[in-house]
Amino acid sequence: MTSKKKEKYDLILEAALKVFAEHGFHRSQVSKIAKAAGVADGTIYLYFKRKEDILISLFREKLGELVGKFHMHIEQTTGVKEALRKVCEIHYTELENNVDLAFVTQIELRQSSLELRKEIGKAVKPYIELIEKLLVQGVEENLFRADLDVKLTRLLLFGAMDEVVTSWLISGRKYSLSAQVDGTVQFFLQGIQA
Amino acid sequence: MTSKKKEKYDLILEAALKVFAEHGFHRSQVSKIAKAAGVADGTIYLYFKRKEDILISLFREKLGELVGKFHMHIEQTTGVKEALRKVCEIHYTELENNVDLAFVTQIELRQSSLELRKEIGKAVKPYIELIEKLLVQGVEENLFRADLDVKLTRLLLFGAMDEVVTSWLISGRKYSLSAQVDGTVQFFLQGIQA
Amino acid sequence: MTSKKKEKYDLILEAALKVFAEHGFHRSQVSKIAKAAGVADGTIYLYFKRKEDILISLFREKLGELVGKFHMHIEQTTGVKEALRKVCEIHYTELENNVDLAFVTQIELRQSSLELRKEIGKAVKPYIELIEKLLVQGVEENLFRADLDVKLTRLLLFGAMDEVVTSWLISGRKYSLSAQVDGTVQFFLQGIQA
Amino acid sequence: MTSKKKEKYDLILEAALKVFAEHGFHRSQVSKIAKAAGVADGTIYLYFKRKEDILISLFREKLGELVGKFHMHIEQTTGVKEALRKVCEIHYTELENNVDLAFVTQIELRQSSLELRKEIGKAVKPYIELIEKLLVQGVEENLFRADLDVKLTRLLLFGAMDEVVTSWLISGRKYSLSAQVDGTVQFFLQGIQA
DNA sequence: TATGAATGAGAGTTCATTCAT
DNA sequence: CATGAATGAACTCTCATTCAT
């Protein structure tokens, strides 16, 4: 029963991901999601309290998976710099290979109330903290500047990558996103100075 | 008459800024904006084709003003690095001193369709290009790396600053935004490397 | 403008009376009322806050008219007993001649929440108080028993008439309601007579 | 098995009485009743065809019990007048001592369609006929007026008592209901007395 | 230009009822 | 007999936009 319930829960989530990516959150009627999932409208409400809950749950699940991948790959790396490159690489390639998810995270999820954005902020936090952890480690190993403001820098790194992804999406994905990893990581490590 | 028209146009825009900042785009009814501007609902439609147009126009006007300020201040600077610091300084202080505008640009404006976001992209372009121009100049003056990918880097810089502002807003503005200028610029110039 | 507004207000109220009488409150969709009134659905909400407000307003207006008629006719009577007969006569004939109103007051209005019934109770109060006033006057004139519990008796009179009307309606109006005036009044007077 | 069936039937009815009394008919979801009865939603439909059937059955059962009590007590009385007082006494005390039932009969049961009200009318009939029987007997014994319209009077008596109960409920039960018996009966007897 | 009353399409959500297990 | 997950019809209310004045 639990597995069956879980199945339908995931079924709806998968359907929602597709519908949100194609039509955007506000233009995605619950009935459209239900139809895509092959269930009745009312069934949605057996698994989610409100329409917004689908969005939040979707984000939590998918971001959870992503953070899992980050941790998994980073464990296999040997140095902090290498790990940081891995983070950027996963960030770019995962979203490049999963355009639906990219649209939802970069475009649709932002189309929400301040209240919801705080909720999303909580879900993003583990990722931001992962970056911070690497920064702290780098400072301890004397690889990064001793006076580095890690709280500020984690935002700068995340924001920089985030903007690259969004810009790539809005441009219509006319170039390779993963090809930007080198330039991005070099910028992170060296800055722009000659 | 044209000046009078301009006056009412601005009147509506100012009212919209306040209303959007307080209630968010989707919760800001046209009638609420009209009331705040002291005009009739229908009058709005003499100056703006659709509700979304108010948002776009607001952004264009305000961003235009901002870009103007950037140009004005940069002309008074002597070097590229100094100019880049000035850009960051203006970016942070202007939004810190104009919280309404900050809310609209960082939160509400993102709550829009892909179509609208493209429109916004066009309005942001002059700013992004201003950054790019400084980067190109820096490379030419051998201040920045010769192999710098300026198209990518302009996004990284903008994205990094953008995230810092958004994060500051969502956190509830518990710390000084302008105090982040030093750390941000240092990161831009030096990167994180020791 | 005010008269025009008043006109549409009444238009909706008249339409609602017909629709409520025919289909009952819960089966009367707002769209049905709007159609009957020849206005758009949304227009209803320019004059009434919620669907329930239509019912309450309808009751207030109609009961207000009725109480007005009571007062008007009673002023023309000479004695208390005659006045009491007039009350019963108006009660029965008005509802007999306005079956739609009768249905709404006797059947549909009762189909409401305890909260709403209290609201209705307030609207009925002037009528109950009118009856009480007559009873007090009768006691003072030694026409009615000196030990008469006027608070209780006003309920007994109102309830008795109310039940006669409801029963007449539910029976399918197979007999004359106004023909019950004599029997009712005789019962009342003998009951309260000194 | 039949007794077991009867048990569950009563179980649901008792649960429904409580739920209806607390939340009202329209706000009492079938699932809420099922939960209160400790059965599954679907089980309700093994005993009742529709939600309304629960209400009707509830009324029939409870009113049947009441009418039984009336008959039982009246048999023990010696005169018609005494019997009539007993009727009023039972009417008031039974509902005063069973507030849940009072709420359902006076408030919730009225919240139903004309169709249902006819159904309820049938259930009330034995009680009304009981009153009529007493009236006829009284007339035969020359205790009551010879020209008494018993069909009308039975309604007047029932309606008067009904209104007293409803008014007592809506007022928030701030006074004793059974204390109204004397005043009520005195009014009745004087009204119909020979 | 300006008004603001009127429009009416649109969608989230509830819940009585069913039926496969 | 019993279950409870699934169904899907039903309906109120909002609000961007229009247009007669």
TrEMBL record, chains A, B, C, D:
<dbReference type="InterPro" id="IPR036271">
    <property type="entry name" value="Tet_transcr_reg_TetR-rel_C_sf"/>
</dbReference>
<keyword id="KW-0238">DNA-binding</keyword>
<dbReference type="Pfam" id="PF08359">
    <property type="entry name" value="TetR_C_4"/>
</dbReference>
<dbReference type="GO" id="GO:0003700">
    <property type="term" value="F:DNA-binding transcription factor activity"/>
</dbReference>
<dbReference type="InterPro" id="IPR009057">
    <property type="entry name" value="Homeodomain-like_sf"/>
</dbReference>
<dbReference type="GO" id="GO:0000976">
    <property type="term" value="F:transcription cis-regulatory region binding"/>
</dbReference>
<dbReference type="InterPro" id="IPR013570">
    <property type="entry name" value="Tscrpt_reg_YsiA_C"/>
</dbReference>
<protein>
    <submittedName>
        <fullName>TetR family transcriptional regulator</fullName>
    </submittedName>
</protein>
<dbReference type="InterPro" id="IPR050109">
    <property type="entry name" value="HTH-type_TetR-like_transc_reg"/>
</dbReference>
<feature type="DNA-binding region" description="H-T-H motif">
    <location>
        <begin position="29"/>
        <end position="48"/>
    </location>
</feature>
<dbReference type="InterPro" id="IPR001647">
    <property type="entry name" value="HTH_TetR"/>
</dbReference>
<feature type="domain" description="HTH tetR-type">
    <location>
        <begin position="6"/>
        <end position="66"/>
    </location>
</feature>
<dbReference type="Pfam" id="PF00440">
    <property type="entry name" value="TetR_N"/>
</dbReference>
